[in-house]
Amino acid sequence: MSQFSQILLFYNQLSNMADEIKDMIDKELYDDIMSKMQYHDKLVVQIRLTKKCTVFNEEEQAEINKIETEIKLKEKENINLLRKNIGNVQKELNRIKVKDKLSNAYTQDTSQREQGSIIDIEDTYRG
Question: Which of 101, 117, 100 is nearest to 109 (CA)?
């Protein structure tokens, strides 16, 4: 197998991996993404080593550049999707925190006095 064929195989694996990661993001399988990324990083190192040790002709280099651009676009889309999901998760957490604070502030449970609910204050200072 030539070095160029090997590079194409590596890039094909990277491209497929980017598609798999997108599916995992959609399914919120973040632990699986982390294990995929470990393999991704190893693959990138293999590509760099192969490229460093190989001289490609103009046609091969043009094809490599095209493939790299496509993969970069896929990975940027995945990053943007992750950022969007993180934003959505943060908004939901904030909404839950506000709801929880309101519920605690207006609780009738007298064991919650330490939390500063004005409803639960007793008139113990009057003799």
Answer: 117
Domains of the chain listed by start with CATH number: 3-107 (1.20.58)
Which two tokens mark 41? 């990083």
Give the residue from 62, 12, 54, 20 showing the smallest Cα distance to 37: 20
CA nearest 69: which of 126, 125, 18? 18
Residue 14 burial (CB count, 10 A): 21
Alpha-carbon distance 45 to 39, whole Å?
Answer: 10
Q: Dihedral sign, CA of 77, 78, 84, 88?
A: positive
- Angle at alpha carbon of residue 70, lines to 9 and 19, rounded to 5°: 70
Q: Is-contact 14 44, C-beta < 8 A?
A: yes
For the chain (127 residues), the mean pLDDT of every run of 10, in chain order, is 90 95 87 87 92 92 95 94 80 74 64 52 50
